[in-house]
Structures are given as C-alpha cells and as structure tokens.
Design goal:
It is built from six helices and five strands, in the order βαβαβαβαβαα. It is an alpha/beta fold and about 140 residues long. It has a single domain, classed as Response regulator (Rossmann fold, 3-Layer(aba) Sandwich). Helix 2 runs parallel beside helix 3. The protein is globular and about 30 Å long.
Length: about 140
C-alpha cells in the first residue's frame, strides 16, 4: 500500500528534491508545505502517514509546529521526523524526548530518503513490497 508523506520545509529546492526522491524511491504520494501554518492545515486535512519537518523555518519553526501537531487530536498520532542541519547528538536526544519518531540530518540523500523513513518507522520489514515488484 502506498504511503503519503508530508514534507515541510521553507526551501523550495529541498521540498522538490525530497519529493522527487520519495516518488522515485518508493512511489509514495508526497504532499508539501512551505511553513508550519501550512503544515498544520495539510496534516489535518490529508492525514499523511508521516511528516518530514524542517527545524529551521521562519515564523513557526519545527519545534513550534511539532507542538501544534501534538496538541491537535487529529494530527497527534502522525509520526514526525525532524530534519535539521544542526543534528548534534545532544540535540537528537532532546528531540526524541519531545516524542518525534526520528531526526534526520541535512543534507540528506534523496534516493535514500524512503529507506531511511522505512527504517525509522519500521515499515515494510522483510523484503521487497509487492508494489515495487508490479511498478
């Protein structure tokens, strides 16, 4: 079954590269948002399977966006993976304490992104999916 991923990043090129990587790497549906506010609306409307959330954004940063997602019963169950250029080890521990599913460092490798998400969330254990075989 195809997954839906919401990519939240204020940089258009980052969104485009991640979207392309996920569509090519796993044939997933990819939604994008360029701000925390937009992410909250898209997540509540479309209920993605996972949210890739950039930490450094103007106005509402990743931490504030995550807290808003957690405060909404509709979006609270959606796993969130933080994406940050400043992924020092001590930071990662504080993020995990917040309840995020994982922390990915920027820059990421677009074609490895789907694998990283599957690994972080425990999706598709045990070989190739039938979707990959048919597509």
């Amino acid at each position: 079954m195809s997954k839906t991923v919401l990519i939240v990043d204020d940089e258009e090129d980052v969104r485009a590269i991640a979207k392309l990587g996920l569509e090519m790497g796993a044939s997933w549906n990819v939604l994008t948002a360029s701000s925390g506010q937009e992410a909250l609306a898209v997540a509540a409307t479309y209920q993605p399977d996972v949210i890739l959330l950039d930490m450094m954004m103007p106005e509402m940063d990743g931490r504030a966006t995550f807290q808003q997602l957690q405060a909404n019963p509709t979006t609270k169950p959606i796993p969130v993976i933080l994406v940050t250029a400043k992924a020092q080890q001590f930071d990662q521990n504080s993020f995990v304490d917040m309840g995020v599913a994982a922390v990915f460092a920027k820059p990421f490798r677009p074609l490895k992104l789907a694998e990283q998400i599957k690994e972080a969330l425990g999706w598709g254990e045990g070989g190739m999916s039938s979707e990959w075989m048919s597509g």
